[in-house]
Amino acid sequence: MPHVSGGGGFSGGTHGFYGFLHNSRNGAIRYFPGSKIHKRNVNDGSDWYLNGRTTKKSSILSIVAVSILAVFVTFVVSLTVDIQTPVRLASSYTDSPKVDDDALLIYDDESLMYTLKEYQELTGICPVIYTVYEETWKATNSKLSDYAYYLYVSNYKDEEHFVVVCSVPKADAGSEKPSVTIEAVQGDLTDPFITGTSFMKFNNIVRKDIKRGEDPGVALDNAFRYGIEDTAKRMNPTTSQRASYLLTSLLPVIISSAIFITVITVMIVRFVKAKKNREFEVLRENDPKMA
Fold first, then answer.
1. Residue 26 DSSP class
2. Residue ranges with strand state E in 86-231
């Protein structure tokens, strides 16, 4: 189906002193009022006072649970990875690229139309641009993305179109730097070409060009020109470019894996240390008295 393209101070007195010595939830190496458990390390004879039966030791069960979670999360993240090389679509549609400028935003669409046709020739995707007054789509939709989706499914029955909708408030349409909002909907078959990263770049080009005072038509022309150059590189990548695209695509997986490996390693180290540092509870009458 078509889818949207993308303080505080240090307190004095007794409380402050003991607040410095211990964490009331976890314990302390010094006796403190209210401690319920007194433990002693068998190896070095050190003492530890706790408010309750809390511990930070990692168990085998928790390590296994985190490991399973790591595998699951890494698998889910890997589903977002797209490392396939785009191949020109065998188009099933009969229409051509077009610009439907109802909001009168585009003063000269000749160069833009030429670029849209070049984009279609390279990718097999049919790009369509709609401009609309904000008041028009807000009469029937709460979000511009919903209106863009409506335009797609109402006019195209394939998965090979790229519909770009530019919205502007009617009072702002004729200004030198109109406040243009862009949403786009693309068919499923266009995904290898129009990735989340590439559409973000596309959108940024349009936004920055309009902000500099460019005609929206020129801004869209520049954005599609970027799309042509980027797609051509990805369709015929050099060895170094292929490696770069692969690394970029796998980056989320690498980051999530590194985080879980670090967490699991720390848990294992703590578990091993806890096994070596055997502890036992000391009778309460052996507790020291506060000075």
1. T
2. 98-101, 126-133, 161-168, 181-186
What are the pLDDT digits (tens) for 217-263? 999 999 999 999 999 988 887 777 667 767 777 777 888 889 999 99
Top-confidence residue, 20 or 289: 289
Q: Which class for 93: exposed (0-12), middle (13-18), buried (19 or more C-beta within 10 A)?
A: middle
Determine the Cα–Cα distance for residues 208 and 164; give it in Å rounded to an integer. 17
Q: What is the pLDDT of residue 190?
A: 94
Helix (H, G, I), strand (E, B) or coil at 184: strand
Domains of the chain, by residue range, sit at: 9-76+255-286, 98-236
The count of other CB atoms within 10 Å of the CB of residue 81 is 14
Give the pLDDT band of residue 14 (cuts 50, 70, 90): very low
Closest CA to 187 of 126, 120, 137: 126
Name the architecture of domain 98-236. Roll (3.10)
Q: In whole angstroms, what is the distance from residue 119 CA to residue 193 CA?
A: 11
Distance in angstroms (rounded) separating the CA atoms of residues 236 and 213: 35
Cβ(187)–Cβ(195) below 8 Å = no
